[in-house]
Amino acid sequence: MRNFGLYVIITSPQLPYKTIAEKCVYHRIRMLQLREKNLSDKELIRVGKQIREITRGTYTNFVINDRPDIAVICEADYLHLGQDDIPIEEARKIVGNMKIGLSTHSIKQAKDALSKKPDYIGFGPIYPTNTKAIPDKPVGVDQLKEVLQFSNVPVVAIGGIDNSNIINVINTGAQNVALVKYLMQTNELEKRIIEINKLINNKS
Directed axis angle between helix 41-55 and helix 17-26, to 10°? Predict the structure, then answer.
């Protein structure tokens, strides 16, 4: 079971998409997800193809959120599905052998998701977050610890995580941590990637 470390999610970024992708490739970020709910399909494909060109053949896997059709068009490495998205069984008919990750927000959802054999699961939000229009209830680090104990695939901790609380997350044994706002709502992306990578790598 190979872990990812820092998982970068692009949502409403301050920096250009191209810049973010280049920085992630340079710093050998293993997972880079495009999660933009407000772009038109045309724009999503344009941005997706741009990121794909930068990440192709590098250490950085490109993940498309929600949309199996666009994941195929952009030749993504992974599709990531939420609880309200197309079921994984249906998505597989579209994406074939592409790897798939599933979001989960409770112990029950995590167990249900694992029965569908995803390549990884996301678990959260660990802390309160407003990156979603209708936020899910925070699960906290104790539930994360429990999921880490029974999951047979990598678990990505997500939700409200930044430099002030990431150590609490890592102390559960989590080796995969997704950050959104802390990396997207800044012009100092590179500085923050280095900072977070140090925190993750010093503990693992």
Answer: 30
- What percentage of the chain carries pLDDT values higher than 70? 97
The two structure tokens encoding residue 170: 């890592």
- Determine the 3-state secondary structure of 122 from DSSP: strand
Closest CA to 29 of 149, 203, 141, 183: 183
Res 203: pLDDT: 63
3-state secondary structure of 129: coil
Helix axes 17-26 and 189-203, enclosed angle (nearest 10): 30
Question: Which tens digit of pLDDT belongs to each residue from 130-146?
Answer: 766 677 889 999 999 99
Cα–Cα distance for residue pair 118/92, rounded to 1 Å: 11
Distance (Å, whole) CA 46 – CA 14: 18
For residues 141-160, average pLDDT: 98
What residue ranges define each of the domains in the chain, with the CATH number in brackets?
5-203 (3.20.20.70)
**Number of Cβ within a 10 Å radius of residue 168:** 15
